[in-house]
Please model this.
Amino acid sequence: MILHETRFSVRYAETDQMKFVHHSNYIVWFEMGRLALMESVGVSYVELERQGYLLPVLEAGARYLKPARFGDELTMKTAISERPRAKIKFKYQIFNAKEELLCSGFSMHSFMNRNDRAIKPPKVFLQKIKEFF
Model:
């Protein structure tokens, strides 16, 4: 399993008329966590794309349990719990400063080439994550 924590604060622009974080921002935050997790194991999305690998989202979901508000300090835990194949699943949990779970979610991605064909993950990626599984 690979686990990474990202800490951040809720910005005013991320809230809605009810003064809660708008639900769409959680998906954006999931991307932030995903990129940070990949960087933490030495894999850069930018470099993957330069090499012709793409990771489009196939499916995403979120379960909203409690609202976050402007100024809240949040911690997002991003995990890969299964060895990636042609697909890779990321799991997310977002907590407030009281360590209350606010949201959990996931995103499923496919390794693809520039011709929109599913392909195996790059060898360099598999080598870097091998120690975690």
In short: The mean pLDDT is 95. The radius of gyration is 16 Å.
